[in-house]
Q: What sequence folds into this?
């Protein structure tokens, strides 16, 4: 088959998987001036963990009081978790043992009890806050194509639940962007040089897409290069062709434009590889061994992928946090995206979710162990790196189980946040009423008799809380990264919604002095 030069260029740009090729091209390394940091002077990162398929939050956190647990089991007699199997947690301000986590979340429960984890209750995509009557009448717009995987993944990743209702900034018109990418656009002045603020190892690609800045897209193994084929001659031909394209970088031809991208990609790839090795080697051998050990999967486990992604995130953030004077990248703010699939549990949910949450529990704990160890390392001076993990998913699932011992697509769900700067041992938001008796007609938390929760907190509030911890500030930055949030809060205030809905942020992060 014959390929034109343009076809070859287009294909290889996708194969490199480093920077999205989209006009206008980002400013290149060394051209940007760093702004003054406010708040924490050290390194900070957020790590989004996308649970693809729609994780059943109803089994992630479960009430343990006798009446509430009996109501829960009435809706799911086969996939519900027995009281004695739950991992007991003791949220601040609540009765002892009032809630429990899924039995697979043993390590997350321990972090919760030690004040390093929190649960964000019933959060999801919203255009404006709405009550059940608003949903039924259609008086207030709902997210586009509720209960659709692709559309609700987009709603979570973009924080734009219904694009037709949003007045986007001029610079974003006609672009598909995510709240991670838009936040990265605005965080750029906090970093020296032009190294990408956002690196994606997995998850939902839309989350990473910015209007001005382009993400670094890396394979889940951390490798940033073309996949080699079994044809050595082809590999050599491709390398030579790319070298020739880079040489054509004169700003005029199509090949020149791609040459500029590849040239920059090679620059970032080289800088990343060098910094990763240099910063890692600077750590004491005992620390490297500890981190490697924390991410070593349990004996007999095969097929796990999330811990591999998070291990690579740790290696990247060590390189990012290490001072440029000692061979690191010397950046101050970064965002990462990882993903784990398989959560569309329409049938046989019990064993499937048990295995997936066991993998999640191991990976989150390994990452947290690594970060706790790095806090003690002198390599980073008095301000060691800080990182916060947070989960996202397409949607929650129905409380009412189906005939296949599974659950169907829902709406609001519960998310986890972990890190040393998290206001731990707390539940944020409003836990839904689980009573589905009488067809749930009197239950104002669900849109129907199956237990599809109307979110009490929005993705916009959730994302903005993390973005401000990173350093996003000011009305202009807020409206750029979260263009729906101002109208959301105004509507919540005018409509007399609870105080949590009237706030721009959910207070799950410790604020800087």
A:
């Amino acid at each position: 088959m014959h390929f034109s030069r343009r076809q070859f260029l287009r294909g290889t740009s996708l194969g490199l998987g480093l920077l999205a090729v989209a006009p206008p091209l980002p400013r290149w390394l060394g051209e940007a001036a760093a702004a003054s940091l406010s708040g924490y002077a050290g390194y900070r990162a957020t790590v989004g963990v996308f649970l693809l398929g729609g994780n059943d939050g109803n089994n992630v956190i479960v009430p343990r009081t006798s009446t509430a647990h009996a109501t829960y089991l009435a809706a799911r007699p086969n996939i519900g978790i027995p009281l004695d199997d739950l991992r007991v947690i003791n949220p601040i301000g609540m009765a002892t043992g009032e809630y429990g986590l899924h039995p697979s979340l043993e390590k997350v429960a321990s972090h919760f009890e030690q004040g390093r984890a929190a649960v964000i209750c019933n959060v999801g995509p919203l255009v404006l806050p709405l009550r059940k009557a608003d949903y039924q009448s259609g008086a207030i717009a709902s997210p586009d194509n509720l209960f659709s995987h692709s559309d609700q993944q987009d709603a979570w990743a973009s924080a734009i639940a219904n694009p037709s209702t949003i007045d986007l900034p001029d610079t974003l018109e006609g672009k598909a962007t995510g709240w991670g990418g838009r936040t990265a656009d605005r965080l750029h002045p906090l970093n020296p040089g032009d190294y990408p603020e956002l690196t994606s190892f997995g998850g939902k690609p839309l989350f990473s897409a910015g209007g001005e800045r382009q993400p670094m897209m890396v394979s889940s193994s951390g490798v940033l290069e073309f996949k080699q084929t079994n044809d050595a001659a082809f590999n050599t031909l491709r390398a030579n062709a790319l070298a020739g394209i880079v040489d054509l970088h004169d700003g005029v031809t199509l090949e020149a434009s791609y040459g500029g991208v590849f040239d920059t990609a090679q620059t970032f790839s080289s800088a990343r590889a060098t910094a990763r090795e240099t910063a890692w080697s600077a750590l004491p051998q005992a620390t490297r061994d500890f981190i490697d050990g924390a991410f070593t999967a349990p004996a007999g486990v095969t097929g796990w992928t999330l811990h591999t992604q998070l291990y690579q995130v740790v290696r990247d953030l060590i390189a990012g946090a290490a001072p440029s004077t000692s061979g690191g990248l010397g950046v101050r703010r970064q965002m990462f995206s990882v993903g784990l699939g398989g959560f569309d549990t329409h049938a046989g949910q019990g064993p499937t979710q048990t295995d997936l949450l066991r993998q999640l529990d191991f990976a989150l704990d390994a990452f947290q162990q690594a970060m706790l160890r790095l806090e003690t390392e002198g390599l980073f001076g008095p301000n060691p790196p800080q990182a916060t993990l947070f989960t996202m998913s397409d949607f929650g699932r129905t409380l009412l189980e189906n005939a296949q011992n599974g659950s169907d697509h829902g709406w609001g769900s519960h998310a986890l946040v972990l890190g040393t700067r998290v206001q731990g041992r707390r539940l944020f938001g409003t836990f839904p009423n689980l009573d589905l008796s009488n067809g749930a007609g009197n239950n104002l938390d669900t849109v129907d008799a199956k237990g599809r929760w109307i979110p009490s907190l929005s993705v916009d509030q959730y994302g903005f809380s993390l973005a401000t911890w990173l350093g996003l500030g000011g009305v202009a930055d807020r409206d750029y990264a979260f263009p729906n949030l101002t109208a959301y809060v105004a509507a919540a205030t005018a409509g007399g919604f609870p105080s949590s809905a009237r706030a721009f942020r959910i207070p799950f992060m410790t604020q800087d002095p």
Summary: The chain has one domain: 32-224+274-494. Residues 1-36, 248-262 have pLDDT under 50 and may be disordered. The first helix runs from residue 5 to 16.
